[in-house]
C-alpha cells in the first residue's frame, strides 16, 4: 500500500518511492518528488493558470513515454481543472496551482509542458518562445551564438528575452508579450527566424526540413501556435539522466564554449536558485511585457 503523505492539508498516496527512474545514475522516484518539493517556490509561478500537458514516463525514459493532455482518471477533486479550446472541440486539462497539486502531478512521473497563454485569456498570448534545436555536429554552443543574435534583435523591438536550457540538446528563449494573438506571435517569431537565417546562413535555419539541419541550429518558431506546448522552466526531462530545463544567465550563454557548461541536473538547481533566485521572474511581471511591432 502506498504511503499517505499530507501536503498543506491534502492527503496524497505517493507510490514506488524507491523505484529507479534514471538508471544511469540511480535517481529514484522519491528523489524526483524531493526535487519538485525543493523547487516548488520558483516552479509554481510559471505553471499557475496555465493548462499543463504531461509527458509521462512512469517506468523511466527507457520505458513507455506518452503525452496526457486531458484530466487523467483518478485526479483528486481538489486539483484545479479548466476547459481549454482545441480545434477538435474544448477539453478539460489540469492546472497545477499549488504545492499539493504539484506533488500529485510529480507522482505521475511526467515532464510539465505549458502553452504560451493563460487559461483565462486563451485568445491572447503572453509569451513568445524560440526553441533553438541543434543538428549534430552543432550543439548548445552554436545555440548560444544564435541566442545572442536574437537577444539583440528582440531588444531593437523593445522585447526583453531570457534563456533556459531545454534539458536536452538545445536552448529556449522566452519573453513576456502582450496585446497579440498566438497567430500574430507565431508570425512575428517566424519573421525573426527568417532574419536569423539570412544573417547567419551557415548557422541558423528557420525551415523544419530535417535534411537541412545537420550542423545548424533550427530556430523553431512554431512553438508559439496556440495548440503547442513547451517544456516548463525547472521541469525534469525524460532523458538518460535527471536533466532539468534550467534558467541560465546571459553571461553563461555568452561564455559557453562546451556543451557541458550548460548541462544541469536536478542536484544543481537548488544551489542555483539560492545563488540567483528565479532568473525567469521578470517574465511574471506584466509591466515588463513587450508589444510586438
What features would you highlight for this structure?
EC 6.5.1.1; alpha+beta; NHEJ_LigD; globular; 6 helices; 293 residues; 27% helix
Structure notes:
By secondary structure, the chain is α+β, with helices and mostly antiparallel strands. 27% of the residues lie in helices and 25% in strands. The protein has helices spanning 29-47, 99-106, 140-156, 182-199, 250-254, 266-276, and strands at residues 4-7, 10-13, 20-22, 27-28, 51-56, 66-68, 81-84, 91-95, 110-114, 125-134, 161-165, 171-180, 204-205, 217-220, 230-231, 247-248, 290-291. The strands form four sheets. Strands 10, 11, 12, 13, 14, 16 and 17 form a seven-stranded mixed beta sheet that branches. Strand 7 (81-84) and strand 8 (91-95) form a beta hairpin. Helix 1 crosses helix 2 (99-106) and helix 1 (29-47) packs across helix 6 (266-276). The chain is globular and about 55 Å long. The termini are far apart. Pfam families: LigD_Prim-Pol. Residues 28-279 form the DNA ligase D polymerase domain. It comes from Streptomyces dubilierae. This is Non-homologous end-joining DNA ligase. Its EC number is 6.5.1.1.
Large-scale geometry:
globular
Helix content: 25-40%
Beta strands, count: 17
**Structural class by secondary-structure content:** alpha+beta
Q: Describe the biggest sheet? A: 7 strands, mixed
Per DSSP, the total helix count is 6
Alpha carbon gyration radius: 19 Å
Let me know the average pLDDT: 96
Distance between the termini: 57 Å
Oligomer: single chain
Q: What's the SSE pattern? A: EEEEHEEEEHEEHEEHEEEEHHE
Unreliably modeled segments:
none
Binned strand content: 15-25%
Pfam families: LigD_Prim-Pol (PF21686)
InterPro entries: LigD_pol_dom, MtLigD_Pol-like, NHEJ_LigD
EC number: 6.5.1.1
GO molecular function: DNA ligase (ATP) activity
